[in-house]
Amino acid sequence: TLPSGIKFTGPAQLQAALLSEPEVIVNSFTQKLLTYALGRPVEYYDMPAVRNIIGDASSDDYRFSSIVAGIINSKPFQMRRAGL
Questions:
Q1: What is the pLDDT of residues 57-67, one digit of tens each?
Q2: Nearest alpha-carbon partner for 30 in 6, 61, 66
Q3: Cβ–Cβ under 8 Å, residues 8 and 17
Q4: What is the pLDDT of residues 7-50, one digit of tens each?
Q5: In a 10 Å sphere around its CB, with 0-12 CB exposed, 13-18 middle and 19+ buried, how is residue 81 labelled?
Q6: Alpha-carbon gap, residue 22 to 37, rounded angstroms
Q7: In 10 A of CB 37, how many CB atoms?
Q8: Which position among 11, 18, 56, 80 has the lowest Cβ density within 10 Å, counted as fewest Cβ atoms?
C-alpha cells in the first residue's frame, strides 16, 4: 500500500499506481534535482519555485528537459551563491 492509500500487488500494479499520480514523483524528483543544483537542501521558501517548475513542466508531460530548464530559470538557482 502506498502512502496515498493505493493498494497494489506486483510490479505492474505498482507502476500503474505510481503513474496515476505523476505529480508526487515529479515533486520529489524536482526537489532532489534542485538540491543537487543548489548545493544545499531545499527549504520551505524554495517551495514556490518547485511548484512553478512542476506546473510549467506539466504542460510538457513532465519531460526531464522541462524540469531542468525550470530549475535553471528558477530564482533559487539564479540567486545561489558560489561556495567559498
A1: 999 999 999 99
A2: 66
A3: yes
A4: 889 999 999 988 888 888 999 999 999 999 999 999 999 999 99
A5: exposed
A6: 22
A7: 16
A8: 11
All three cell numbers of 14, joined, read 505498482
Sign of CA dihedral 53, 43, 48, 77: negative
Retrieve residue 47's grid coordinates. 517551495
- Within 10 angstroms of residue 51's Cβ, the number of other Cβ atoms is 13
CA distance 2 to 39: 30
pTM score, whole prediction: 0.81
- 40: Cβ–Cβ under 8 A, 6 or more apart, which residues? none
Q: Are 42 and 31 in contact (CB under 8 A)?
A: yes
